[in-house]
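step 3/5: co-fold with heme C
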Amino acid sequence: MEMMNRRRGLLFGAVVLAALAGVIGMARGRDARAQDQKPARPAAPAAGAAAADDPAVERAREQVKMLDDLYKNAVVSITKTYVNKQDDRPAIMIAKDVFAAMKKKGWHSARLVDATGDPLSDLNSPKTDFEKEAFGRIRAGETYFDRVVGVGKDRRLLAATAVPVVMAQCAACHGDRKVGDVLGFLRYEIPVK
Ligand code: HEC
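step 4/5: write tokens
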């Protein structure tokens, strides 16, 4: 009797295992079929959005990151070292000189754009469609925004990186603002190649 029970138990176990294996197999098959149905190529990205897996776009993004660190560190360092009162020459004027030199040499274009709606110089208001879109996004709290424009040799990465009040000295000239408030953004235009 005991022997019978053990056998039955084993048989029952085997049936359960077989059933489980069947279910798993079916599920696997379904997954595999689902995979097969996926298009071979990823769907085309929305117009203007940069392809995430394009190495040339990634290189341009890296360049933006590097330039952003360079420009922002230089502005902070110049401000710390030389800018003490409101009628001192602001570091941004030096950055502007460097932006112009880099553009003249054909490396990239960079521009400081207002995001307060009330800039110290109207020349710094957003001008292009990209700058106007970045204005809205940076004000809404985004710290980075980019898009690829042009085709072939004319492909460029447009990018915007937030410029907050990073130190109390910024507020000395920029009015009633506290550290952390967004003042503007740097807008880059870099060849994608
Ligand atoms: C000594 C005064 C002074 C200080 C300090 C200063 N700025 Fe400015 N900033 C200016 C002036 C003047 C302009 C307009 C320059 C121009 O003619 O384009 C400006 C322009 C800007 C703009 C473009 C929008 C606008 O208002 O025209 C941003 C963004 C900005 N500064 C951020 C900063 C940050 C961040 C700091 C601190 C690291 C800072 N500034 C420190 C005087 C100053």
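step 5/5: annotate
The CA atoms of residues 63 and 69 lie 10 Å apart.
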